[in-house]
Amino acid sequence: MCPIDDPAWNNNTNTNSPVREDFVPEPLSLEALFYKYGVERSHADNVARNALELFDLLAPIHGLDPKYRQLMEIAALVHDTGISTDLEKHHKVGRDILFRHPPAELPESLRPVVAWTTFLHRKKAGEKKLEKLRKTSFAEMPEEIQDITLKVAALLRLADALDYSRLESRFGNVRFGKKVVEFEIKGHGAAVDAERMSKKGDLWQLLFDTKLEFRPEKRK
User: Fold this and answer.
1) Which CATH number fits domain 27-164: 3.40.50.2300, 3.90.1150.200, 3.40.50.300, 1.10.3210.10?
2) Which of 40, 115, 149, 152 could form a disulfide with 98 if both were Cys (CB 3.0 to 4.6 A apart)?
């Protein structure tokens, strides 16, 4: 899990860590990050909107303190920071960029969270991935921060999936049952995005015993 495009970082002898021991981050504002790395603002804004809605709707289950709502929003806004640098590996490249240039709007203690949530937003997130994660510098963070990171990542994966079609899908009716929450997905891309959310709910299912179900709106 070494950085991909920074020779100086590739001299790190700890291959399980994306950060050199002597590395000093250089925070950038969100606007500077968007400009420097060509972030697709419409998608970033949609994912942030979705993430905040999920954060609020599922608060009784995920249990994150409301003070982390801004963290959720920022994690969503920067999750594709690496996409213009390397589309195929943008989750890894984005992670490394955000370790170098964390969002200045976040307190120092929470800045590593957005780097790891960026890494975790893509690909499958099963037990094997978490086992590998615990062999990296992720495990060196305080347990509380690790827990926050995984919960934010679980919500981010779902928020990103809701905009998979780029057709402005939105939540419709949400029904809370016993150990299950059913989401209606509205919009022209609802079928595609509901299916994607079902796939990207894997990390949520590892963390919580409440199942999430996603169904496209029935058209009359």
Assistant:
1) 1.10.3210.10
2) 115
